[in-house]
Amino acid sequence: MSVVIVDNGGANVASLRYALERLGTTALLSADPDCIRAASRVILPGVGAAADAMARLKRHGLDAVLPRLMQPVLGICLGMQLLHEHCEEGDVQGLGILPGVVRRLRLPACLPVPHMGWNQLAINTPHALLDGLGTGPHLYFVHSYALCPGSATIAQTDYGVPIAAVVSRANFHGVQFHPERSAAAGARLLANFLALEQ
Fold it and tell me: How far is residue 155's CA from residue 165's CA, in Å, rounded to a whole number?
């Protein structure tokens, strides 16, 4: 199996590669379109600003490549947000693979933004990506922008408002949390992604 992490400047790449290595998988970091097309699994990570990340993807022509991929693709945090139509942060168009607009968290004053810490998932729809996570697993979140649960949402969390935590449609999947920082539950989700059928 060949796993490629899309090099879009995300700061979480080292910890993600290490998490994959613990699962026995060595991932290549690349922004090369041919390398990404040839991979059996593609991960789009992200920590930072949506406009900057989309600019990097466009610079390498990946805004055209990623939506046409047929192998399993996993977006993580900002990477998940970029799979959608639009990001309020920077008023930037996303990849348009999944429906929805990413908006800044608007929360009661008692809840700080960014949302940072462990939150419980409520699984809406059984899916191979969530196998073995049990009832109400806790995952680690760090984000200031989010999607409301929508038609592609298979699990959500609550942080003053309902938040789409896991999305899936066809071969495209996304998680708002950081599985590489989410202990056993995060490792299980990454293992499930690696095991998804083409």
Answer: 6
